[in-house]
Design brief:
The longest helix has 31 residues. The model has no long low-confidence stretch (mean pLDDT 84). By secondary structure, the protein is an alpha/beta fold.
Length: 206
């Protein structure tokens, strides 16, 4: 059909303050070239300073806007029915003192957590017993066991998180990345449910 247009909403996009958001910014449009380009250039809202950092665009409201301009076009929707627009504010310069302070807090906190865990499970006594089993001698500080164990602990954490600074070892996501992905999905569903009414009002008032 010449007047059939398919629209697929994007899941999440980034916008900036004062940006004029077009249909093509938040949706993939397939159809006759002239009609698809015209729909893609339609402006659905302007991001203002009064907006929160999250705006949700609803497919039904967008179709109503399109039908006003193109009443003879048949629209078929594919995929999600909302798009989450994340407003990206301009970032200032990095505060190195604050960065170093946060890094130290995280480093010290992680170190204390690891040490408390080893105290709880009596890791020193375990190392002493392993040293005696291997060498037949008793030692209150079995460095032969402790040093390789410490190096292996650090290496294991690097392999577990699948990152060494910005370098990835393979394409398989780490458990932390999977949990962050699940958290983001839950957060997006919550945002869609709580922000939907507000986005409808914005589109109607445009």
């Amino acid at each position: 059909m010449e007047n059939l247009v398919y629209i697929r909403m994007r899941h999440r996009v980034q916008v900036r303050p004062d940006q004029l958001v077009k249909v093509s910014d938040i949706a993939k449009i397939i159809g006759p070239d002239k009609v698809a380009r015209g729909i893609g250039q339609m402006i659905i809202l302007r991001v203002t300073k009064e907006d929160n950092n999250i705006i949700v665009a609803d497919l039904i409201q967008m179709i109503e806007e399109i039908r006003i301009e193109y009443p003879n076009v048949e629209i078929q929707s594919v995929g999600p029915s909302q798009t989450i627009m994340e407003v990206i504010l301009s970032r200032g310069k990095v505060s190195w003192p604050l960065f170093i302070l946060v890094w130290l807090l995280l480093f010290i906190g992680a170190a204390i957590t690891i040490m408390n865990f080893h105290v709880d499970v009596s890791m020193l006594e375990v190392h002493q017993k392993l040293f005696k089993i291997i060498t037949g001698r008793e030692d209150s500080k079995p460095l032969l066991i402790q040093i390789p164990y410490s190096l292996g602990l650090g290496l294991g954490m690097i392999l577990f998180f699948n990152h060494f600074f910005r370098k990835r070892f393979n394409e398989e996501p780490s458990p932390l990345e999977v949990e962050m992905f699940n958290y983001q999905q839950d957060l997006d569903r919550y945002v869609i449910m709580t922000e939907n009414k507000e986005s409808i009002r914005r589109l109607d008032d445009r």
